[in-house]
Amino acid sequence: MRIAALYPDLLNIYADRGNLLMLERRCAWRGIGFELTRSTIGDELDPDAHDLLYLGGGQDRDQQLCAVDLTTVKRDAVHAHAARGGAVLAVCGGYQLLGHHYALEPGVTLPGVGLLDLHTERGEGRLIGNVAIEVDGRTLAGFENHGGRTILAAGQEPLGRVLSGHGNTGVSGFEGARSGNVVGTYLHGPLLPKNAWFADELIASALGVRADELEPLDDRFEDAAHAGARRAAGV
Amino acid sequence: MSAPAVQARTGVPLPAAVATARLAGRMARLAGKGGTSLPGKVLTRMRPDAIARMSDRLDEGSVVLSATNGKTTTAALVASILEAHGTTLVHNRQGANMAGGIAASLLGSWRRGRPTGALGLFEVDEFWLDGLVRALRPRVVLLANLFRDQLDRYGELEAIADRWHQIVADDAATTTASGEPGFRLVLGADDPAVADLGIDRADVLYFGVQDVAVARDTADHASDATTCRICGASYVYTASFVGHLGHYACPSCGHRRPEPQVTADRVVLHGTRGSTIDLRLPDGTVTVDVHLPGLYNVYNALGAAALTHALGVPAATIAAGLTSTAAAFGRAETVRIGERELQLLLVKNPAGANEVARTLALAEDELDLLAVLNDRIADGRDVSWVWDADLEAIASRVRHVTCAGTRAAEMAVRWKYAGVAPDRIAVVTDGISAALDHALAAAPQDHAVPIHAIPTYTAMLELREELVRRGAAKGSFA
């Protein structure tokens, strides 16, 4: 399992490290080799060297720096990675950068890398709180905290349906977006420690296997934490 | 803008409002309800100008301090110094630091139309600082640090930094317009986000750690504010102390850490007990024993020293005050349960947690922990931060950790992924009393082994209440 964390020094505001740690340990406990590469501003990205690209959330100013780099230095590599079926997980600010653009304020628009068919606009106030969504008949639970409202284009598949909380816009009833192995979501908290099943889905999709082919782990604590996050969201 | 107009709009005369708020507080206490700040909330509801009017009557005015970490402890250190100096205080000692809490502490000291203390000492919540500075018109404002904390409640760090910049700009504008002096600004030099507040002012008093021997090898995962506010380049650190606090400079525009006037020139850490520092002040250098553990408490001591120096307290009195401070309410407080010691270490954000972990790593024996994670509003509903905390630093030292609180299982997952074997982790979900019993039973029979409790804010209050009930700790509202 070879992961590249993009801008880990700048896009890390919601404990994104927890998502990476989750992937690392769950691979290690199964004897799956794990390699983490950090790729920040100015670094070239090898389009063939990674199974999964990870982008976290950041503050506005840091997000602007990343937007410029992502759409210039790393643009072609990110598209080539996705085109050959490589997995991408982008959370919050990183999710916004996977769309076409993010209209931050009048006169300030961040470019996006265009991997997902969506765009984001700054809304009135932040959407904050515990959130739960339904993905393929299962539940993802976490926490959201975003000023952006993300609008999906007509053909863009969302990640899930909002069961509780705000989601992409607060009114659309949908959360996140997914195209093949590319996933974007506002759920942090962080996402994977509260949803071990989804961590395994990601590992499986990055490695090109089915999740039920992965060796089962003792998930007593993880299942209880998932239940706790759902309870916090009222689901 | 005349006074009678204000009077007409606010209605109830101040003495009547004071009497009513007192009664409300008494009734809430009889009913066993209501926090420290309830009577203050009643008071400010009836008289929105109560804080301004009442603080106006303080003979020596007010001082205000804010930070993400260490507010209550720093204020306790300041109080100890000022008591050694003979100054009587009105002080929100219990850490209720929004408008209601500050109004409540003024109310508590109010006798015959004036406060019983001469100087107001108020720790203020980061987000309430602008309004309360306007109301209190303090003589000195201490701003110590800005860490990632409870983002769901407060918005992003930069938003708070921007609000603080506005407070400083407003003070300058008021001073220019009215000719009256504004506040003296005391800032942490080692936190770039805070030090930058003083860029346009001449009379800032800065404090910082000079002794690079206590710097760490690498920066924390939880580091914030590592890019230059002027040009956006990443700061380069030559020394990193706590989180993003350290000696930094911008490689692009040359902006760098200001040279502090109040410094710790030598720091010797004594494990979980405290430290000895050579404290340099403009009027002399003194050696001080701080009976609070960890480098973060060295910063708290420096902030307290700088603030009291700005008030004219001599170096020797500052040293005496710092040395005589006991731990603030629930912050590194040690209590006895039967034969066994239990140390309470409040943990509320990754930077604080990292320092607690760093301090626990100095303990000689394996660790028996009671980790209580709540997600109530005062804790922050978002528990993400536990994943930023460097629990890996002590994972290999944990003999047993009892996880409790509203998000007990998430705490357990965090310890498991930090590297603690699952059979050393227990989840107790049926209340703080059961959790405490479990932690006591799981620890070795040798009662000389202490238990370290690391609760979030509301968990600390619950745990402390339980300890009081068992006769192990003193009540705080006596």
Topology:
The complex is a heterodimer of chains A (235) and B (478).
Chain A lengths: L1 E5 L10 H12 L6 E5 L12 E4 L4 H11 L4 H9 L3 E5 L1 H6 L2 E5 L2 E4 L6 E18 L2 E15 L7 E5 L9 E2 L1 E3 L2 E4 L5 H4 L1 H12 L12 H14 L2
Parallel strand pairs in A: 1-2, 1-3, 3-4, 4-12, 5-7
Antiparallel strand pairs in A: 5-6, 7-8, 7-9, 9-10, 11-12
Helix pairs in contact in A: 1-6
Chain B lengths: L2 H8 L3 H17 L7 H9 L3 H6 L6 E5 L4 H14 L4 E3 L7 H10 L1 E2 L2 E2 L3 E5 L5 H8 L3 E4 L7 H4 L2 H22 L5 E5 L3 H4 L9 E5 L26 E7 L2 E5 L12 E9 L3 E8 L2 E7 L4 H16 L4 H9 L7 E7 L2 E6 L4 H11 L6 E6 L19 H4 L2 E7 L3 H11 L6 E3 L4 H11 L8 E5 L1 H13 L9
Parallel strand pairs in B: 1-5, 1-6, 2-5, 6-7, 7-8, 8-11, 15-19, 16-17, 16-19, 17-18
Antiparallel strand pairs in B: 3-4, 9-10, 11-12, 12-13, 14-15
Helix pairs in contact in B: 2-3, 3-6, 5-11, 5-12, 11-12
Give me a quick take on this structure.
By secondary structure, chain A is of the alpha/beta class. Chain A has helices spanning 17-28, 60-70, 75-83, 93-98, 191-194, 196-207, 220-233; strands at residues 2-6, 35-39, 52-55, 87-91, 101-105, 108-111, 118-135, 138-152, 160-164, 174-175, 177-179, 182-185.
What's the CATH C level of chain A?
A: Alpha Beta
How much of the sequence lies in strands of chain A comes to: 25-35%
CATH topology of chain A: Rossmann fold
Would you identify the CATH architecture of the largest domain in chain B?
3-Layer(aba) Sandwich
The H/E string of chain A reads EHEEHHEHEEEEEEEEHHH
CATH fourth-tier homologous superfamily of the largest domain in chain B: Mur-like, catalytic domain
List keywords for this structure.
heterodimer; A: 235 residues; Rossmann fold; 6-stranded mixed sheet; 12 strands; B: 478 residues; alpha/beta; Protein-Tyrosine Phosphatase, Chain A; 2 domains; 9-stranded mixed sheet; 17 helices; 37% helix
